[in-house]
Design a protein that fits this description.
single chain, 404 residues, alpha+beta, Heat Shock Protein 90, 3 domains, four-stranded antiparallel β-sheet
Length: 404
């Protein structure tokens, strides 16, 4: 058994995965570059603060105005900071003196406050190396430990959350897509099985009837001859059905065909059977003749049969009308199938070609789906609803390439 494997599906998944990784890496790189710039800015502020302390420590003047330092440097600090001695002893547990932007419970004792700040000091030491405050002779008089501001901390973790949510979205979307795909495949299999039973049912029932006639009239040559002729017709029909289904799974061979003559055969087949429908319906064919195009006659006949059947089902009037018109337009051939049936609702126009969608109680929604596959995938043409008005009718249009 030959298995048709299409590597395009696997390639698309790989491409999508690589694209997702590139987007995630790009987001992470861009965000981290911003974080690095913000950290450098904060480090420069700490250095400026340290230089201010050095200036104060090295200054011999008593009446120096420190307003600029406190208003333009210290006030700009929006990240945690602790000031310690060279031996890493916290200078003061007073807010704004020994530390800044660290929340501390005011009800704690002095010892508890210092223990709490020592824990914070360890955290800050692991984030950034301290900035040293030195005298002119390079003697270290203080150390400044600092952490990251709230915005830097958020930016650090933002890309990871973004990547997580993106992958969750991809997983949900992929699962939903697979579910819809499985549902569609299920509809196709169910529809195909019912379509097969429907296609085979009529000739098989007919064969059983003719077989019974042969048993009852085996001594009557005329009856036997008539039954034999009809049996042969049904066998030809069965063979055509088998050919149609066998060509659905593979690329069929296209041959130059006289389109009008092919349509005449389909119309003639239905005209002989219209009385059996119980409806008074006129089925006509008009338009340009001698139009040659590349077709697979078995599959194309199936499309026209489906369109005629849909028109017949849609006709609820006592006097129905189905008209097939063929015309040529530059490099294309156009076939329009028009009826005066109940029409298609606007909201359903985009769904009628989906497998499993049907507006009929006894329909299984595969006829138009197969028709679209045959016209677009196999013949390189188009099939669509040209127009439809509720209670007035519908026009389906097929566009094919004319022979060049």
């Amino acid at each position: 058994m030959k298995i048709n494997y299409n590597p395009a599906s696997k390639n698309i998944k790989v491409i999508l995965l690589l694209l997702a990784i590139l987007i995630a890496a790009g987001t992470l790189f861009y965000t981290q570059s911003i974080v690095q710039k913000l950290q450098n800015r904060e480090k420069e502020i700490v250095k400026l603060y340290a230089q201010s302390l050095e200036f104060i420590a090295n200054s011999n003047e008593d009446n120096i105005d420190f307003t600029f330092i406190f208003q333009n440097i210290i006030q700009r600090i929006d990240f945690p900071l602790i000031l310690t001695s060279p031996e890493d002893i916290i200078s003061s547990t007073k807010v704004g003196s020994g530390f800044k932007n660290i929340e501390i419970d005011s009800t704690l004792s002095e010892h508890e406050k210092r223990a709490f700040l020592n824990e914070k000091l360890i955290e800050l030491r692991n984030i950034h190396p301290p900035i040293l405050v030195t005298l002119r002779d390079s003697t270290i008089i203080q150390k400044i430990y600092f952490g990251d501001s709230d915005i830097v901390q958020r930016l650090k973790y933002y890309p990871y959350f973004q990547i997580i949510f993106a992958f969750l979205f991809i997983i949900i979307a992929y699962s939903s897509f697979n579910y819809l795909k499985r549902s569609e495949q299920s509809n196709i299999w169910v529809g195909m099985s019912k379509e097969t039973a429907h296609q085979l049912g009529t000739p098989i029932s007919s064969l059983m009837g003719w077989n019974e006639i042969l048993r009852m009239n085996y001594q009557n040559p005329d009856k036997v001859l008539d039954a034999t002729y009809e049996i042969e017709s049904d066998l030809v029909r069965l063979n055509k059905i088998t050919t149609r289904f066998s060509k659905i799974g593979s690329k069929p061979e296209l041959k130059k065909e006289d389109l009008y003559s092919l349509l005449e055969k389909v119309v003639s087949y239905f005209q002989r059977r219209l009385p059996q429908t119980g409806k008074k319906v006129s089925l006509t064919l008009k338009g340009e003749k001698d139009l040659i195009t590349l077709l697979n006659s078995d599959l194309f006949e199936w499309v026209i049969e489906n369109l005629i059947k849909n028109s017949l089902d849609a006709i609820e009037n006592k006097e129905g009308k189905i008209e097939i018109e063929v015309s040529k337009n530059k490099n294309s051939i156009e076939i329009e199938v028009t009826d005066n049936g109940k029409g298609i609702e606007q909201k359903s126009k985009k769904d009628i070609f989906k497998p499993g969608f049907s507006t009929k109680r006894r329909g299984w929604g595969l006829g138009l789906s197969l028709s679209r596959r045959i016209i677009e995938n196999y013949h390189g043409g188009k099939i669509f609803v040209k127009s439809s008005v509720i209670t007035q009718g519908t026009t389906m249009k097929i566009i094919l390439k004319s022979e060049i």
